Amino acid sequence: MITLTHYLVVSSILFVIGLVGVIRRKNLLLLFFSTEILLNSVNIGFVAVAKFYGDLTGQMFAFFIIAVAASEVAVGLGLLILWYKRTGTIDLDSMQLMKG
Fold first, then answer.
1. For the segment 17-54, what is each residue's pLDDT rounded down to a tens digit?
2. Phi, psi of 27 (to 5 degrees)
3. Would the pTM count as exceeding 0.90?
4. CATH topology of domain 4-89
5. Residue 42 and residue 11 in contact, taking contact as beta carbons nearer than 8 Å
6. Using CA atoms, how far apart are residues 34 and 27, in angstroms rounded to an integer?
7. Helix (H) or strand (E) holding 29
8. H or E element: which one contains 26?
C-alpha cells in the first residue's frame, strides 16, 4: 500500500535532484530542466498532501505552479534562442560577457 510518506519521499528525492542540477549545471537548457524538476517535485508534495487530507487546496496550488512553469519555459526558451543566435553557445559562462 502506498502512503503519504512514499509520495513525500519521492518528492524530496526529486527536489534534491533538481537542486543539485540547478547548482551544478553550466548549460542553460539543463538549468531549465532542473527548475522543472524542482517545480514538479513540489507539485507531487502538494497533491499528495491534498489527497491525504481530502482538501483541494494543494491541487489548486499545483495548477498555479504548472501555469508558472509553463510561462517560465516559454520566456526562458525565447531568451535561450536569442542568446544562442548572438553567441553560438548556451553555456552559462559565456553570459559573463553581459557585464556592463
1. 999 999 987 788 888 889 999 999 999 999 999 999 99
2. -90, 130
3. no
4. Helix Hairpins (1.10.287)
5. yes
6. 11
7. helix 28-53
8. none
